[in-house]
Amino acid sequence: MMKPAFSTPHPLAGDKVQLTVFDRATFDIYVPSVRAYTAPAPSNEALKEGLLKTVALFPHLAGRLAVDDHGRRFLHLNDEGVLVIEATVSADLADVLADGMAANFDDMYPTFPEENVGAALLQVKVNRFRCGGVVIGTIAHHYLGDGHSFGIFFTTWASAVREGKNFAVPSPPFLDRGETTVPRPTPTPVFDHRSIEFRGGDDGHSSKPHAVVPMDKIKSLTVHFTAEFIADLKARVGARCSTFQCLLAHVWKKLTAARDLKAEEFTQVRVAVNCRGRANPPVPMDFFGNMVLWAFPRMQVRELLNSSYGSVIGAIRDAVARIDGKYIQSFVDFGAVADMNGEELTATAPAAGTMLCPDMEVDSWLGFQFQQMDLGTGPPCAFLTPNLPVEGLMIFVPSRTAKGGVDLFVAVAEGHVKEFKRVCYSVDSSGCRTKM
User: Fold this and answer.
1) Are strands 298-300 and 266-274 parallel, antiparallel or unpaired?
2) Contact, 254 vs 269, CB < 8 A?
3) Which residues are catalytic?
4) Which ranges of the chain have pLDDT less than 50?
5) 3 state SS of 435
């Protein structure tokens, strides 16, 4: 267990930080990630020294999840430390990556704690390969922060390693979680958040009840989209659009086609939306914590498959646009009312083995600054995710092998894999045929 050394105690040292309504809306899980660096890679000591310098700026990472007298969990910034495990691997990194790391992936990061309360919230495993390459696997509890937050953490850690003794401590991140959840004088939620972000009321944001199947019935696939393929997609849209929007529209179409759904069924995508810049007033983009809500673009299967890419992107944009300052304030007010009433809130997190079909869920890591994760000998040669436990879950990540390309990690039902692989690169000018 490693603890950061402070020249003076951090201003938040010892604080008991209540979970915000954004924290409680996210998953009560540890999230793994793995980054691989080819030789020559920095020494383990350099990695650990850089880690401690970075954690000193993010005191939540060295804290613990605890429970108060009312049975509610909170983040105790008690500086109990970060767990660091060092391991050696009697193989060359290039061989492991060439063979695909899926079989060994779980060995690359620490084992998930049996009990979240009291466990180290950030845990790191440094895997040193025979060739001198290194794989850094981390698990971090989602209550600490969202993907945007950990992008800030990882790039700061890389900078601390790269610069060594010359590390210039950056301006501290924005850490005041209370400022992200200020209710109105009279909290007045105007949307049905109990049915959207939390379990409780009618689930108005599922097209139909979701089945749960054995995990071996769900296959994790990686799809590589080249810069040329993405440019072709954007050209067919006929208007400006982001890489994320055009790829989501494409994959929504193709996975729906592979599922062979009935034309009259409805399908939707749960899209993670960063609320920092959408709140009123806006929250600083360097806020470390959770500030994500979800948009739900929804279309009938017949309409989705026969619509142009531009029309599908329009549906996605319209849904995301509804996550505005008014919606975010309503969500904050809902949390305040729940707190006043002593209500427990349970997030709508799907269990492992859930079949989201006919729906999907997407997260984008396209904003991750991989070039800034350079440890001094180059950026990571691979950024890997675990096998996705929920059918229909997908993550977009910048390609590490092709400039301007994008890798898609997606979980597909066993029976849909062959057809999805067949159609996933087919680009239709307007739509594709649907089952009538």
Assistant:
1) antiparallel
2) no
3) 142, 374
4) 203, 431-436
5) coil
